[in-house]
Amino acid sequence: PPLMGITAVNEQKLMSPYSLVWGGILFIWQIPHFMALSAMCSADYEKGGFKMLGMENPKLAGVAAFTHTLTLFPLCYMAYYYNITNILFPITSTIFNSHLLYKSYNLIQQPNSSIAARNLFVSSLFNLMYNSGAMIFLNNEFLTRADIFLKSFTK
User: Fold this and answer.
1) How far apart are the first and last CA of the chain?
2) Cβ–Cβ < 8 Å for 120, 31
3) What count of other Cβ atoms lies within 10 Å of the Cβ of residue 65?
4) How many CB atoms lie under 10 A from the CB of residue 138?
5) Which residues pair with 139 in a beta bridge?
6) CA dist list (Å): 93 to 37, 50, 52, 61
7) What pLDDT score does 121 carry?
8) What is the pLDDT of residue 65?
9) What pLDDT score does 75 carry?
């Protein structure tokens, strides 16, 4: 749905850099998020008869979260490369992505820790909130429109 919304609102083609970068960030982000969730709620999934990676092999869930988080870095840099955002987005997203990477690493080190899983889960939520907001407010088109809007008051 977010990819369809971006394509419709920005009147861009589905395969535009903006759509691919944002779709890629959302796709990759969900893996650490759900690996944390599966490790954190493994008892509930087991009661329901579901087999989840976090329940079967929590360390491997941490490895999956870690490797997917590594992919967020180049995706965020691509947003600047394709002139979607200004330079602040890749710089500041590195901070949030590094925190998510650190929490993923903690899940690898402490695979049976519900605290490590919860910390990764919370970090993934903050990561999504930051990347979503920053893709909007640090978007070059948004900044241009905001500048035009603000200048209209000074005329």
Assistant:
1) 40
2) no
3) 32
4) 21
5) 85
6) 22, 34, 29, 23
7) 96
8) 95
9) 95
Alpha helices in the chain (DSSP H): 2-9, 17-40, 42-47, 53-56, 58-81, 88-109, 114-137, 140-151
pTM score, whole prediction:
0.85
Mean pLDDT by 10 residues, the chain (155 residues): 66 73 91 92 86 85 95 95 91 96 96 93 96 85 71 70
Tokens coding 154: 């000074």
Tokens read off for 9: 């609102």
CA-atom Rg of the chain in angstroms: 18
CB burial readout 43-58, b (16+ within 10 A) else e: eebeeeeeebbbbeeb
